[in-house]
Amino acid sequence: MTDSELILLRALLAELAPQGRPALLPALHAAQQIHGWIPEPVAAEVGRALGVPLADVFGVIDFYQMFSSQPVGRTVARVCGAPVCALAGADALADALCRHLQIEPGEVSSDGAFTVEHAPCLGLCDHAPALLVGETAVGHADAEQAAAICALNAQQPKSLVGGDIRLLTSNCGQGHPTSLADYQAHGGYAGLKKAL
Does a structural domain hold residue 31? Predict the structure, then answer.
């Protein structure tokens, strides 16, 4: 890698360097965002700037599945492989995406645009099967939607948590949370009383 290819990364690392090892994750995220993946010269530059041995830098890259030490497509489709998504058809979804792109999992499409990977839990269990296409979450994905997903026209999940339909936590934040009398005055334990 040439010095000119590392200029932007070095500027970012100069800001993070005073933090040392605690800045390793932010530095690696920045490096991957700049270069698309983290080749050895980039990892070495991060390690040098933060005072972290190269073996430790690669240990972090290998541990976190969202980092890549191999070239990937400009857009990575990460299909959730957690049990809920797996039961909802995540494997069939990943297979359909690969067939549509004519690649194997982990390979880069011929135009360099896509890579399909299995990912750990994405925290979108209520939208299973789910995936991340680049930075965009896609929920209730179906193998039949492979073309739409690759065209970035897939359904984005909308969660109800924190919305108008909060039932269980509707009284949270009202009054004094440490006062039992105040909690009961605002309807606390009403469901329990009704059940009894």
Answer: yes
Whether residue 120 lies inside any domain: the answer is yes
- Taking alpha carbons only, the member of 156, 94, 153 closest to residue 127 is 156
pTM of full prediction above 0.90: no
pLDDT tens, N- to C-terminus, the chain (196 residues): 677 778 888 898 999 999 999 999 999 999 988 888 899 999 999 999 999 999 999 999 998 888 888 888 888 899 999 999 999 999 999 999 999 999 998 889 989 889 999 988 888 888 899 998 888 889 898 889 888 888 877 666 666 555 444 455 555 656 555 677 777 887 778 888 888 8
Q: Is residue 16 located within the same domain as residue 59?
A: yes
Check whether residue 46 and residue 98 sit in a common domain. Answer: no
Domain that residue 24 falls in: 3-63
Q: How many structural domains are present in the chain? A: 3
Express the helix, strand and coil content of the chain in percent, nearest 5 each.
Answer: 45, 10, 45
CA–CA separation, 187 and 189 (whole Å): 6
Does residue 135 share a domain with residue 98? yes
Q: Cα-Cα-Cα-Cα dihedral of 43, 45, 46, 50, to 10°?
A: 140
